[in-house]
Write a structure and sequence with these properties.
Largest sheet of chain B: 7 strands, mixed
Shape of chain B: globular
Largest interface: A-B, 27 and 26 residues
Helix content of chain B: under 10%
Oligomer: heterodimer
Largest sheet of chain A: 6 strands, mixed
Low-confidence stretches of chain A: none
Order of helices and strands of chain B: EEEEEEEEEEE
Structural class of chain A: mainly beta
Structural class of chain B: mainly beta
Strand content of chain B: over 45%
Low-confidence stretches of chain B: none
Shape of chain A: globular
Strand content of chain A: over 45%
Distance between the termini of chain B: 37 Å
Helix content of chain A: under 10%
Number of helices of chain A: 0
Radius of gyration of chain A: 13 Å
Mean pLDDT of chain A: 91
Number of strands of chain A: 12
Number of helices of chain B: 0
Number of strands of chain B: 11
Chain lengths: 113, 115
């Protein structure tokens, strides 16, 4: 069965520091991978997605993610975090069969000045 | 592109009452999804429409839940005889029909509190 694991429930970083949020998936075929961000009172906003091709994908707000098939991972990175990046981040996998996304449990990011 | 909208944003109800939520998808999107998100969890799939046809339902969608999309545009999600366990954020998403490469765009959600 397909699943998504986000090992870090909560991460705290200093403003200006680099960030990496981990995501591991379990799926038998090539997955379609997404990162969404959710701010309080807001809906989920798409940061970036991977379907095929270049394994390093660029997204909005300076985020990037790298698909590593050998590690079943799709980690999200940002070189310099801004205070406005504080939010909940969700990794999701879309599968070839069916039409639903499977989401991880999320990583809550706190940015300290 | 006005995005996905959901109404109401918040709903407080007493146990046993019925509630109905509305979702208006992005206008050119023919796929519409409902998810439920509880505290500390990621969204969980409930059901999915392609145009007016409801094509998939999760086991999470008990008999008390019903969803419609009568004209292939907006959708409603009704919960009958609400229970405290129904308290959650109900999210709607929409997408174009691009098969398994669909990207889903989410609305702000309706937060339901059952007292």
């Amino acid at each position: 069965a397909q699943s998504v694991t986000q090992p870090d429930i909560h991460i705290t970083v200093s403003e200006g520091a680099s960030l990496e949020l981990r995501c591991n998936y379990s799926y038998g075929a090539t997955p379609y991978l997404f990162w969404y961000v959710q701010s309080p009172g807001q809906g989920l906003q798409l940061l970036l997605k991977y379907f095929s091709g270049d394994t390093l994908v660029q997204g909005i707000k300076g985020f990037e993610a790298e698909f590593k098939r050998s590690q079943s991972s799709f980690n999200l990175r940002k070189p310099s975090v801004h205070w406005s990046d504080a939010a909940e981040y969700f990794c999701a996998v879309g599968v070839r069969t069916g039409n639903q996304f499977y989401f991880g449990t999320g990583t809550s990011l706190t940015v300290i000045p | 592109d006005t995005g996905v909208s959901q109404n109401p944003r918040h709903k407080i109800t007493k146990r046993g009452q019925n509630v109905t939520f509305r979702c208006d998808p992005i206008s050119e999107h023919n796929r519409l999804y409902w998810y439920r998100q509880t505290l500390g969890q990621g969204p969980e799939f409930l059901t999915y429409f392609q145009n007016e046809a409801q094509l998939e339902k999760s086991r999470l969608l008990s008999d008390r839940f019903s969803a419609e999309r009568p004209k292939g545009s907006f959708s409603t999600l009704e919960i009958q005889r609400t229970e405290q366990g129904d308290s959650a954020m109900y999210l709607c998403a929409s997408s174009r029909n691009r098969g398994y490469r669909d990207t889903q765009y989410f609305g702000p959600g309706t937060r339901l509190t059952v007292l």
